[in-house]
Design goal:
Strand order of the largest sheet: 7-6-5-8-9-10
Number of strands: 10
Low-confidence stretches: 266-279, 423-431
Largest sheet: 6 strands, parallel
Order of helices and strands: EHHEEHEHHHHEHEHEHEHHEEHHHHHH
CATH architecture of the largest domain: 2-Layer Sandwich
Structural class: alpha/beta
CATH class of the largest domain: Alpha Beta
Radius of gyration: 30 Å
CATH superfamily of the largest domain: Glutamyl-tRNA reductase, N-terminal domain
Strand content: 5-15%
Distance between the termini: 19 Å
Helix content: 55-70%
C-alpha cells in the first residue's frame, strides 16, 4: 500500500516548512529502520513542502497509522520539530490519492505559483536520493517515474506552465494604460516568494528600474541582496508605500498587508516625493487571499487592480489550464493503477505459462522421438498452446483491472495445483 504524509503551504506555516526543509538526508533511512512495516520511503523536502512517500506492508494491522507515527518520530529525531508541532499541519493520503497527489505536485499544480517548473527537478532528485540510500522500492520507482512522465505531458499539452507568469504579465499589461515610462516609476514590491521573483523579472522586462521590496515576514534583506534591489525595513514601510507610484503585493499572508493607513501622506510630501505628478497611485493585488484592504480603492488618487479584475481579462486557454492539467493527471493516475493491477497478476500468469510450456516441451520431445522430422507436429503443438493460453491470460488482466486478481490465482491453485513463485513476483515488480 502506498502512503503519503504531506505538509505544504496549504497546511503549514512557512516558518514550520522552513525548519522541515532543513531535513537531513538520512530521514528516509531512519524511517525504514524505525518501522518494519515500511518497505520503502522517498522524502521530498523543499522550501514550500515536506512530503514522505511510503510503501507499507499491507497485512500489518493499522500499517498506515504505524507509518505516520514512524515518520513523525524520524522527523523529530532529525530536525528537532516535535510531533506535537505538526498536529494539524499535514495531510495523509493512501492508495490512489497518493498517485494523483504526486502527479499534481510534480506538474506544479500544488505549488505556490501554479505551473512553476522547479518542483519537477526536485521530485526527480528525491527519487535519486532514495536510490542512493537504498530506501526505494519497485513500486515507489514506478510511482515517481510515472510522475515525471505525467509532468512532461501536462507541460506539453496544457497552458499550465504559462499560467503563473501570465497572471503577472496580464496585471502589468492592464497597468500599461496608466504608465507612460516604466523606468520613471517608483515600484514597491510587497512579498518575497515565488510570485515576487516572477513579478520582479516581468517588471524588469518592461523597463522598471527603481524597485524596492518589503517583506511582512522579514525576508526583504535576503531577497533584495539576491536580486539587486533595495530592501525596505518595517519602520520605513508606510513612508515608502506612500511615496511609491506602483505597488504590487504578492504574499501568502492571510490578512491584508496594505491598507489606507500605509498610503496616506501629507500633500506637500506627495508633490515632492512622488513622480506621478497629477497621475494616480496604482496598487496591484496578486495575493490569494487578498493582500490589500479594499478600502484603499476609495482613497483619492489610488486605483486598485485585484485578481478578480485580472482574471476577467485572462485568455480562456490559460484560465482553463488548471482544469486541463487535472484531467491529464487523472488519466495518468488511471493508467498507473491499471498497469499496477495487471502487474499484480503477472506472477500468476507467468506460473500458468510456465506450467503449460513445461507440458508442451514434454510432448514435443515425445513427438521428436516418434519421428517428427519436418517439425509439423511441434508447430501444431506450439500453436495450440498459444490458443489455450490466450483466453485465461486475457481474463487474468480483466480480473486484475477490476481488483479481482486473487480469483485468478485461486483458480490456478484449484485447477492445476500451481502457485506463483516469490521470484516471479519480484521479477514482475522490477519489470
Amino acid at each position: 500500500m502506498l502512503l503519503c504524509v504531506t505538509a505544504s503551504h496549504k497546511t503549514a506555516s512557512f516558518e514550520l516548512l522552513e525548519r522541515l526543509s532543513r531535513t537531513p538526508d538520512d530521514v528516509a533511512c531512519t524511517l525504514v529502520k524505525l518501522a518494519p512495516c515500511v518497505q520503502g520511503a522517498v522524502v521530498l523536502a523543499t522550501c514550500n513542502r515536506f512530503e514522505a512517500y511510503l510503501e507499507i506492508d499491507e497485512p500489518v494491522t493499522a500499517a498506515g497509522a504505524i507509518g505516520v507515527e514512524a515518520l513523525l518520530e524520524a522527523v523529530e529525531s532529525a530536525t528537532g520539530v516535535a510531533a506535537t508541532e505538526l498536529d494539524g499541519a499535514y495531510d495523509v493520503y493512501s492508495g490512489r490519492r497518493v498517485t494523483e497527489h504526486l502527479f499534481a505536485v510534480a506538474s506544479g499544480l500544488e505549488s505556490v505559483v501554479p505551473g512553476e517548473g522547479e518542483i519537477a527537478g526536485q521530485v526527480r532528485r528525491a527519487l535519486k536520493s532514495a536510490r542512493k540510500d537504498g530506501t526505494t522500492t519497485p513500486e515507489l520507482e514506478r510511482l515517481f517515474q510515472r510522475a515525471s512522465q505525467a509532468q512532461r505531458k501536462v507541460k506539453n499539452v496544457t497552458a499550465l506552465g504559462r499560467a503563473g507568469r501570465s497572471l503577472v504579465r496580464l496585471a502589468l499589461e492592464l497597468a500599461d494604460s496608466r504608465i507612460a515610462d516604466w523606468s520613471a516609476e517608483r515600484v514597491l514590491l510587497v512579498g518575497t516568494g515565488a510570485y515576487a521573483a516572477v513579478t520582479l523579472a516581468t517588471l524588469r522586462e518592461r523597463g522598471a528600474e527603481n524597485i524596492s521590496v518589503y517583506s511582512p515576514s522579514g525576508r526583504a534583506q535576503i531577497f533584495a541582496a539576491k536580486h539587486g534591489i533595495r530592501p525596505v525595513a518595517e519602520a520605513d514601510y508606510a513612508r515608502t508605500a506612500a511615496h511609491s507610484s506602483l505597488l504590487i503585493t504578492c504574499t501568502t499572508a492571510t490578512e491584508p498587508v496594505l491598507g489606507p493607513e500605509h498610503l496616506r501622506r501629507p500633500v506637500a510630501a506627495a508633490s515632492a516625493g512622488c513622480p506621478l505628478g497629477h497621475r494616480n497611485q496604482l496598487v496591484v493585488d496578486l495575493g490569494m487571499p487578498r493582500n490589500v484592504d479594499p478600502a484603499v480603492a476609495v482613497l483619492e488618487g489610488v486605483a486598485l487592480l485585484d485578481l478578480e479584475t485580472i482574471r476577467l481579462h485572462a485568455p480562456l486557454e490559460e484560465l482553463q489550464a488548471t482544469d486541463a492539467a487535472r484531467s491529464v493527471i487523472r488519466d495518468a493516475a488511471d493508467t498507473f493503477h491499471l498497469v499496477g493491477a495487471r502487474q499484480s497478476v503477472t506472477p500468476s500468469v507467468v506460473a500458468l505459462r510456465s506450467h503449460i510450456f513445461a507440458l508442451l516441451d514434454t510432448e514435443i520431445d515425445r513427438a521428436r522421438a516418434r519421428g517428427d522430422e519436418d517439425g509439423k507436429v511441434e508447430q501444431a503443438l506450439r500453436h495450440l498452446a498459444g490458443v489455450l493460453l490466450h483466453t485465461p491470460t486475457t481474463r487474468a488482466h480483466e480480473l486484475a483491472a477490476s481488483g479481482r486478481a486473487d480469483e485468478f490465482t485461486a483458480a490456478l491453485a484449484t485447477l492445476y495445483g500451481i502457485a506463483p513463485e516469490e521470484g516471479d513476483a519480484a521479477a514482475s515488480a522490477t519489470a
